[in-house]
Specification:
Strand content: under 5%
Number of helices: 23
Radius of gyration: 24 Å
Pfam family, one: HEAT_2
Region (Disordered): 383-403
Largest sheet: 2 strands, antiparallel
Biased composition (Basic and acidic residues): 392-403
Order of helices and strands: EEHHEEHHHHHHHHHHHHHHHHHHHHH
Helix content: 55-70%
InterPro entries: ARM-like, ARM-type_fold
Protein name: HEAT repeat domain-containing protein
Structural class: mainly alpha
Length: 403
Amino acid sequence: MLETLDTIPWQQLQHAYGDASEVPGWIRDLASPNKEVRQQARSHLGSSVYHQGTVYSSTASIVPFLCELLDEEQVAHKLWLLQLLTSIAHGSSYLDVHYRRPQERNTPEFQARLAEELKWVRQAKEAVSAGYPTYLNLLHADQPRLRAMAAWTLSCCRSHADEVIPTLKERLKQEDKLSVRASMIMTLGRLMPAIKETHDYFMHLLKKQKKPVLTIAAALAYALLAEEDTPRQVVRILLESYEQPPEVKAKFATLPFTDVNMDATLSKAFCAIGFSVAPLVIPTLIKALPHCDALSSVVLVDNLLYLALEGRTLSKDTTIDDLSDTQKDVLTALVKNKHIWESANMLITVGHYFPPQHNLELSLWNREDIVRFLKGKPVISSDEEEIQRQQPSDKEAVSKKSS
């Protein structure tokens, strides 16, 4: 195990904090019999070669060794290893995420660095995909949670979909644990092509399911796959899912693919289906807001605003009179549900749909800003207008300078 670990030129590769020379030691420590050593290794790897959603030049190189560890029966924390691999497969470039201003991005130097980082992203995704034999093997593990996570990790293996899909379909017929079946269904939705045979397969799956969680998972997978071609029957299933009892929602929240909770996760499906369903689904999403916590509300509000505003950012000249009744209802609901503003991320999420205020480059909108807008104030803040009035024009500035 790990015999080729030292053949990688780690000192020439980078992670979030510098060169990757410590990485092979951390990987070996994952197999240590000492629990504290293993915990330290997980902490180091989970914050360096993968750091807050971004990947680096060393990231792809660690993946085969993580798969080696997963293949060894005595290695602990396999669930964490699969979670790390799934995160890596969805990783992004640091530059692409953190540098958004055109003046920063539109230089030859930046574009060259960005191209290099995007290459690391592709390499990391392909490295995870290439590990599909390991994930398929783990579908036979004793622990249902491990089988479920392995099934979901297979959703990252699109470049090997032809090898994965037949095995996954066969295992789905044999699997009896709800969480594993739900994860298999979701992964099949990610991997199967959007053709008639796939639509027929999912309609058949929907008819067969007896348990609510599996019905919801099949409808969700189908909607994310079919997008605007999603049948209205499937849309109805998703909408009715918001009325499920707490025990069903609690079970759904434990699934590997759930984004915080069931209500937030299902709202993503409506965005995939498109704006045509907005009038139908927006009242249901508004009704779900009081039941969201600070984390899930960020996801739900983002998707709610996306549907209500059709993905557009309001201009600085927009007033409340320019909005439809439905759009006003959405903003009013954001004000009424005070608890959704507990997360600072909500300011960024809402600000994504409004122009920046207070001469800031980043748009941050809080509950009071929405209240002011609903009362008829313009999108641009009064204090910003005052600052702009006080600032001399270019012509005035030149005149004052010359005098």
